[in-house]
Amino acid sequence: TWTCSDLSSDALAFTVTAAKYTKIGRVVHITLHFAFPVTTGVQPVKIGTLPFAVVGNAGMAVGYNNNGAVVNPLLADGTSEIQMQSVAGVVYTNINMSNSTFVLSGYYFV
Known about the structure:
With 110 residues, the protein is mostly beta strands. It has strands at 5-6, 15-24, 27-35, 47-48, 58-65, 72-75, 81-85, 101-109.
């Protein structure tokens, strides 16, 4: 497992149902089932800390999202975090994800 936490300066406390990873060679497979609290925080969504730093950009599949927005999770090169973006590449803020639950799955290289 890995510890999922808010890396934005809004200091949110996520409700985490599962945060798991498997590393095989240079590939890290991750799954995350978590919920945002009710928030008015306006900082960009930054979910971390991933078990290893990301090499190259990667995306994740959204298996469940009760938010209603189309969300594209992004794992940016050189970071250990997940950002949430719109289809147009606009970074979502915490208030956009307030009281939302997500199930994410994907992989990235290290």
